[in-house]
Amino acid sequence: MTLSTGLPRRLVLTGLPAAALAVLSGCTIAPPGSEQPDQQGNPAAPTNPRGDVAITHIHRAVRDRDTILVATHQGLFRFAGAGQLVAVGPPFDLMGFAIAPDGTYLASGHPAPDSDLPQPIGLIQSTDRGHTWTLRSRGGQSDFHALTALGPGVMAFDDALHFSPDRVDWQDRQIPAPPRDLAAGPDGTVLATTERGLLASADRGLTWQTVSTPQLLVTVAWAGPRTIVGASTTGALMVSRDAGATWKVGPRSVGDVSAITATLLGAEQIEILLVVGTQVWRTNDLGAQTQILV
């Protein structure tokens, strides 16, 4: 079962009353030049005076080589600069999204009303950077909110933790507390943020150990083989360059962060993409300075 789409397009919601458009205006696809700086000098979130397009929820922002991707309630988008997003592939609710080491896009969530995908979607994958998607497994069974690629396999959480070595066959796993976020490192170590603290597994979820952190983490990401970045319940960003043994905490709270990804730009600099409310932010200095992308 494969969904296909034509050229990247803008999502357009028409015929909505003004009140509905106001509710939906958390993150809009805006024409160039509509952004105004906020009181801190950051670019403001895009606004669209036409009220044509709105994204109601952003689940994750991820870098794929030279492209920033935004997984949303309305589908997958790529950041096109100047506060603009361009739709990639068909619209569906990407509750979970990850990019595997081989470049495959993995996702889970809910189909669009006119889709022939099951509800919930289960695990779907794209091998053409999001333009078409194929149902892989667990269709009609799982809506994975936490999802991470583990080599050719997947670890994911719906109401229980599961591991698949091949994205088709699944094994149940036990974990001391439900994970809010999952992140697999280059060496296969999986991190899980939970109400009991940050947990780590080096054996594909068979056993878990607690990783000490300065604050309770909500979301976590690997930026490199030993570099971990996290966002805490207080909105503080923090980084460990020794696989969690020691941590450096950013200078200020950046707000309510729901998702985070990180990329090493060099030996020292780390690009962090944050989902804060209905916006995507970028910082290279643990939040001392932030840029609102969309």
In short:
The chain is an all-beta fold. Helices cover 2% and strands 43% of the residues.
Secondary structure topology:
Layout: E1 2-3, H1 18-24, E2 58-64, E3 67-72, E4 75-81, E5 84-88, E6 93-99, E7 105-110, E8 123-126, E9 133-137, E10 146-150, E11 153-157, E12 161-164, E13 171-173, E14 181-184, E15 190-194, E16 197-201, E17 209-211, E18 217-222, E19 228-232, E20 236-240, E21 248-253, E22 257-264, E23 270-276, E24 279-283, E25 291-292
Antiparallel strand pairs: 1-9, 2-3, 3-4, 4-5, 6-7, 7-8, 8-9, 10-11, 11-12, 12-13, 14-15, 15-16, 16-17, 18-19, 19-20, 20-21, 22-23, 23-24, 24-25
Task: List the main descriptive attributes of the protein structure presented here.
294 residues; five-stranded antiparallel beta sheet; four-stranded antiparallel beta sheet; 1 helix; 25 strands; disordered N terminus; Exo-alpha-sialidase; signal
Describe this structure in words.
Keywords: Signal. This is Exo-alpha-sialidase. Residues 31-51 are annotated as: Disordered. Residues 1-30 form the signal peptide. With 294 residues, this protein is mostly beta strands. Helix content is 2%, strand content 43%. It has 1 helix and 25 strands. It has a 5-stranded antiparallel sheet, with no helix packed on it. A 4-stranded antiparallel sheet has the order 2-3-4-5, with no helix packed on it. Strands 10-11-12-13 form a 4-stranded antiparallel sheet, with no helix packed on it. The chain is globular and about 45 Å long. Mean pLDDT is 84; it is low at 1-53.
